[in-house]
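Today's session is about reading a structure prediction critically. Students often jump straight to the picture, but the first step is always the sequence itself: look for stretches that repeat, for charged clusters, for runs of hydrophobic residues. Only then move on to the predicted structure, which in these notes is written as discrete structure tokens rather than atom positions. Here is the chain we will use throughout the hour.
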Amino acid sequence: MGERNMSMVEKRRVVITGMGAVTPIGNTVEEFWNSVKAGKVGIGEITRFDTTDYKVKIAAEVKDFSPRERMDFKAAKRMETFSQYAVAAAKEACEDAGFDIEKEDPYRCGVIVGSGIGSLQQVEKNYTIIREKGPNRVNPLMVPLMISNMAAGNISIQLGLKGKCTNVVTACATGTNCIGDALRAIQYGDAEVMFAGGTESSICPTGVAGFTSLTALTTSNDPERASIPFDKDRSGFVLGEGAGVVVLEELEHAKKRGAKIYAEVAGYGATGDAFHITSPAEDGSGAAKAMEYAMEEGGITPADVDYINAHGTSTHHNDLFETYAIKRAFGDAAKDVVINSTKSMIGHLLGAAGAVECIVTVKTIQEGFIHQTMGTRETDEECDLNYAVGASVEKEVRYALTNSLGFGGHNATLLLKKYEE
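Below is the predicted structure for this chain, in token form.
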């Protein structure tokens, strides 16, 4: 009882053949991963607006990003920052995959890239214009600049992808749900290739004020001790921004064109807590079930999982209830799995978090390097698992899970596997 019937249709195998990232510690995958290995923390004072009247003064901003260098500048001027990040990451992933749309049926190649929020900046700017100059002065492009599906739309236009083009929005689970839905699209024959992931850029007055009023953000102003997942002194997350996009491809299609294969996407689980708009279920049952579903689809047991890239936001509730969830899903094997949180370095990228963390998980499988949870010193007594505190861990990683939990009770887990013929 309670098991999913995944065998009604013969599922096709899906692999990752390209990756692209824009993050607070690097604007390409290589730069980002080198920073991760070096334990670089990308948190600092907010430069985007004057924080004098704000309790929260720090965030994890993307630095030195130049749209002119990453895409057609005329097109970039008709995109808000969240779309620019997404297009830059998608173009990098496309190049990395050696993907040429001219050699493909464009209707079999699609995009599922989401954003939790879209552009709050457009709302702010144009509301100010309405108040000061009247409604007739609003930017004619306000709506297409603002709406969250424009990341996917712009990627589709820039890369000529004419297949399924959608935008999953599940708050902080967006990136992982997008990759999961793209996996399903290929498994069940809707596409051969999907560009999937998430993007976000909401370090602006409304974003910071809103999350601060919700008491979700830490008011610590020490960048090294602000995003400290599972630490006994954790007090909220640090707002981050950026984008992550992966190229998912049907295995035979990838082999036929001689693509390099980074990892296999072996399972996906998604559930809803049906509990609370911001707090995860207190017993961790929803997140546990998502992990169980992902493992079940991959045909493995908890003892087979070497590593979990946790959602690990550094809020009291998330880290405690995610720990409960891991214990619930893993039983005795929970004490043996190595867990970490990439948010300790880049803050919380909201809709982009799961996608960027998927990239970290792939690199971890490739290199057998599990990064330290930076900034975390002494864990909460109830957070009593192995969170890679104090040092990175080097070990072979054959199977890994990556978790995302979103406001609204969304839980999403991907199971990634070292590729074997």
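Discussion point for the tutorial: The mean pLDDT is 97.
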